[in-house]
């Protein structure tokens, strides 16, 4: 079994020079040509940044609306009451609640990918910090998930809003589409994501901020991207 996997991996890497930096469009083309899974693989971008997120003034986080969506179905939970709860339901939220939703989550029922809350619900939601925090699901005003505009937040989440947050090693990564997308759609999404990360450059970042960028698919090889081709043309 192990030999079979390594054969497939070796085949997928054929024609890709490990240390070469490819123009974005060419990197996307190589990725699409080598997608061999029986499912629609996710295209991921990984960006190495010149930051140390252990320092508060070097933390990088934010949200970006991908112009062509993510290609995946996002289940959204909303903490809201009254009219705001109704707005959330009308906008397409999958789960809407207050104390009942807190109880369900405390019982291990986490059937959603994104969590939104109105500001007045945060004292209640705060009880779930230890549950939602480690999963990256805790609502946060910095990424638009603590808001009075629950309808707008739900629609953004469903339509291709992607949160990003730098990890310990200074890497930001996210899914930016599916290999079934056409090359232009993937490239546009990658550029939109890169632009958002660049704009989120923290005050404490010194020297070279954007160091390396690579694209990969769920089962595919990594392809390094020429940074000069990331700017929108």
TrEMBL record:
This is Large ribosomal subunit protein uL1. One of its GO terms (cellular component) is ribosome. InterPro entries: Ribosom_uL1_bac-type, Ribosomal_uL1, Ribosomal_uL1-like, Ribosomal_uL1/biogenesis, Ribosomal_uL1_3-a/b-sand, Ribosomal_uL1_CS. Keywords: Repressor, Ribonucleoprotein, Ribosomal protein, RNA-binding, rRNA-binding, Translation regulation, tRNA-binding. Belongs to the universal ribosomal protein uL1 family. It holds the Pfam family Ribosomal_L1. Binds directly to 23S rRNA. The L1 stalk is quite mobile in the ribosome, and is involved in E site tRNA release. Part of the 50S ribosomal subunit. It comes from Chelativorans intermedius. NCBIfam families: rplA_bact.
């Amino acid at each position: 079994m192990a030999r079979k996997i390594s054969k497939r991996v070796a085949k997928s890497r054929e024609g890709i020079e490990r240390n070469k930096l490819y123009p974005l469009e060419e990197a996307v083309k190589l990725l699409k040509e080598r997608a061999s899974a029986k499912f629609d693989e996710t295209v991921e971008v990984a960006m190495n940044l010149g930051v140390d997120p252990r320092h508060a003034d070097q933390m990088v986080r934010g949200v970006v609306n991908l112009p062509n969506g993510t290609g995946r179905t996002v289940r959204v939970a909303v903490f809201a009451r009254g009219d705001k709860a109704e707005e959330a339901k009308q906008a397409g939220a999958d789960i809407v609640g207050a104390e009942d939703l807190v109880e369900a989550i405390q019982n291990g029922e986490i059937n959603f990918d994104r969590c939104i809350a109105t500001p007045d619900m945060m004292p209640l939601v705060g009880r779930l910090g230890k549950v939602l925090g480690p999963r990256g699901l805790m609502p946060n005003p910095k990424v638009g998930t603590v808001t009075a505009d629950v309808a707008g937040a739900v629609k953004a989440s469903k339509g291709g809003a992607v949160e990003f947050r730098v990890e310990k090693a200074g890497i930001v990564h996210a899914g930016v589409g599916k290999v079934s997308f056409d090359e232009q759609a993937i490239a546009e999404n990658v550029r939109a994501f890169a632009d958002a990360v660049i704009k989120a450059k923290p005050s404490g970042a010194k020297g070279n901020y954007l160091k390396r960028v690579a694209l990969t698919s769920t089962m595919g090889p990594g392809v390094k991207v020429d940074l000069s081709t990331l700017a929108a043309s």
